[in-house]
Amino acid sequence: MRVIHFSGLAILALVRSSVAAAVQSNESSFSADAARYRWAPGTVISYKGSPDFRQATERWDIYKPPTYSVAITPAVEADVATAVKLARQQKVPLLATGGRHGISTTLAKMQGGVAIDLSKLNSISIDKKAVTITVGPGVRFGDVYEPLYKAGFQIQTGTATCPGMIGVTLGGGIGRLDGLQGLVLDALVSARIVLANGTLLEVSKTSNPDLFWGVQGAGQNFGVVTSATYKVQPLYKGGIWTSVDLIVPIEKNLSYFKAVSGMLPMPADLTVQTTAVYNTTLKRTQLLSSLVYAGPKEAGLKAMAPILNLGPFPFQNVSTLALDKLNENAMFQANAAICVKQQIFDVYGFNLKTFDVPTMVSVVRKMSDFFDTQPAARKSALLLETWPNQAVMAVPDDATAYPWRDATTYGRGLIEEIRQIELRWDTPGDPVEAAANSLGRDVRAALAATSGYGNLTVYVNYAWGDESLESIYGAKKLPRLARLKAQYDPSNVFQFYHALPTSYP
Ligand SMILES: Cc1cc2nc3c(=O)[nH]c(=O)nc-3n(C[C@H](O)[C@H](O)[C@H](O)COP(=O)(O)OP(=O)(O)OC[C@H]3O[C@@H](n4cnc5c(N)ncnc54)[C@H](O)[C@@H]3O)c2cc1C
After folding, report:
1. What's the pLDDT score for residue 49?
2. In 3D, which of 207, 245, 440, 450 has the Cα closest to residue 329?
3. Atom of ligand 1 at shortest range from CA of 104
4. Hey, which of 123, 162, 168, 328 would you mutate to test ligand 1's pocket, going by the most ligand atoms within 8 Å of its Cβ?
5. Which of 234, 252, 280 marks a domain boundary?
6. Domain housing 211
7. 57 C-alpha to center of ligand 1: Å?
């Protein structure tokens, strides 16, 4: 097995061990072709079984993962283009990887191809004058909090520190600043993208604006984004946030969900995250509630009063956090555990416009029954992210390909809630998988039925992989997206993430 580190034009080939004959012959032909290209110092080509390969391909979710024979880890943007050209010349499928936190089962359609591991392209530069940040595709959310905070700025991100910033942006990017600043993709000013033919394009409102539109919501389909520039904002209220964690016993489900429902539309500076989990000590289902407010404690507790008034709770913790430490510490400090690599996560997602209390109670009961009968899957959870969306809705629907910001269309200006069912077990192949998938589809269907959308709709980055294109991208956006796909990736090179068609309908 071989790992090739490129040092200038010199190729250092390390023969490590032998592998199956078939792989070996692919490897020889691949490395022979790879040697014909000029690679920058630091770019690494590694093959299955080597430590470099493991490092370049290790994922967060190992449920239905993509697999590779070769990984290319470019050290510079130009080598991304070279990697694309090489994979195409070899006629092997390719998949770019950013934070490697993709949860879609469509990624499993990639088997035995080339991983273009973007982790070394991890530069961050803040331009105080332009009020922007430019990041490489190897940057994770957790990398930008501190430098931005120290410079007096903030940007909307997801809630965990570990997903790739650009990878998340390409689908939307939802989180605790949705109400104040919008989706992560709403902050995008421009991006550089390597197309299937290896050419590099800049996309922005003024440069290739049509592709820029498509990148903002379906961006995994057109090329490899090698850098992205976002607008940032001055720290809101000095960057001080209030976080409250509560354990809500199952007896209070109904009053809890009524309180959440009564708070809608959620104020722009308040978010509520509810997780139905199994408590192994008490041997019963309970709700974990994470309330987060952008501002100091007194105002925060006032905004959260409809839920706090349901107390006392068996556990209640109030903390004041600086924004750069918020996502590590909010929600029961779950971030560290959430970000552990190589776990099984079988995730069903769906969007809701309306918060139907009887449905909430009924799906928590379904989860509870599941925990009772399936002990192997007691790490599973139903996660309800009740985000405000004032700033998301302030952006015109046709400004980007992201399809689910139009919640006001359905009346009363309720929030758009993105929800997930995370089904989990420890051992690949465990018989609990069939029961878990059946529950996932059942709970998703129950929530979709009262979602206010009339049918299942799902944020692309939370989609399982069995949903219709319309459920993911929205029927209205699909014709334009298909035209872009036909123009920029007619051979469907970028096909492993809820692939767009080249014509629609
Ligand atoms: C623990 C966890 C927490 C999450 N929290 C949130 C959240 O708070 N908010 C939210 O919106 N989403 C969240 N997500 C979902 C997240 O948006 C998606 O999983 C996203 O695809 C992760 O991107 P990645 O780069 O880490 O993953 P990858 O697996 O590296 O990539 C996913 C897909 O994007 C493509 N891609 C990645 N980078 C590029 C690039 N530079 N150019 C072209 N294509 C690229 C890949 O080819 C692949 O098809 C979370 C996921 C996890 C696992």
Report:
1. 92
2. 245
3. 19
4. 168
5. 234
6. 124-234
7. 14
